[in-house]
Amino acid sequence: NYIKKIEKSTVRERILAGEPRIDGRDSSTVRELAIEIGVLENTHGSALFTRGETQALVTTTLGSKRDAQLIEKLETNDRIEDHFMLHYNFPPYCVGETGRVMGVKRREVGHGRLARRGITACLPSIEDFPYSIRVVSEITESNGSSSMASVCGSSLALMDAGVPIKAPVAGIAMGLVKDDDRFTVLTDILGDEDHLGDMDFKVAGTSRGINALQMDIKIDGITEDIMSIALTQAKEARLNIIGQMNQVISEPNEASKNAPKT
């Protein structure tokens, strides 16, 4: 416990003093990206998105309208057809653990819903694109912000599958170290910075705006200045990531020959 206290105080004080972070970056730098599409030959669309030590292997599968997920309401007998499904898998091996793979965990449900919100706003209507779409994000390694890597990978995999999304979508996780009146906002936080810091603020969106937000904080609250700086740095990071994604694929591909015909 004593060693952990020293670790926490040392890391936080270095960040507040403007010194390099754990991995040598400054407060507003995004980790190195590696982006590939079409990595799985027989899928309708696939992408491998790597940001530092966080990696998501994302696949897109297209089905007919009849493949939509049926959701029954509790209050009435009405049924809703959901034509877009996004599943997020976080197996133990991605963080070097040997735990058993059993049912879906709370983390996977929550992160999947967040990634889904980030993507849904940019999907075409069922009239314009008459397919059911299933996206699966498999986290193969994780050191912070795997849900936002899933957003980036999902956008790439959808475009690889020929889905005419309205705009590329990227996500970034922002952090915070605060001590009284001193504070530093961190872009693209590591797992350790999430653990030792005061905030995990996930922002997903396009070059034109924000699609989804989620904030977890360990302090009583944040000021308007902190929020403004966090959103500004998140926008800069998002534009940087989208720019690199566009170098790999900027327009949707033709639909895969393996995709169903409608």
In short:
The chain contains 5 helices and 11 strands. The protein has 262 residues and is of the alpha+beta class.
Would you write up a description of this structure?
The chain is built from five helices and eleven strands, in the order H-E-E-E-E-E-E-H-E-H-E-E-H-E-E-H. The protein is globular, with a radius of gyration of 19 Å. Helix 2 (106-120) packs across helix 3. It is α+β, with helices and mostly antiparallel strands. Strands 1-2-3-7-6 form a five-stranded mixed sheet. A four-stranded antiparallel sheet has the order 9-8-10-11, with helices on both faces. A two-stranded antiparallel sheet has the order 4-5. The protein is 29% helix and 29% strand. It has a single domain, classed as GHMP Kinase, N-terminal domain (Ribosomal Protein S5, domain 2), CATH 3.30.230. The relative contact order is 0.18.
Anisotropy-based shape: globular
Count of DSSP strands: 11
Give helix and strand order, one letter per element, not per position. Answer: HEEEEEEHEHEEHEEH
Distance between the termini: 61 Å
- Which strand order do you get reading across the main beta sheet? 1-2-3-7-6
- CATH topology heading: Ribosomal Protein S5, domain 2
How many helices? Answer: 5
Q: By helix and strand content, what is the structural category?
A: alpha+beta
What number of domains? 1
CATH level-two architecture: 2-Layer Sandwich
**Radius of gyration, CA atoms, in whole angstroms:** 19 Å
Residue windows where pLDDT falls under 50 for at least 5 positions: none
Residue share in helix: 25-40%
CATH superfamily: GHMP Kinase, N-terminal domain
pLDDT averaged residue by residue = 95
The level 1 CATH classification is: Alpha Beta
As a percent range, the share of strand residues is 25-35%
Let me know the largest β-sheet: 5 strands, mixed
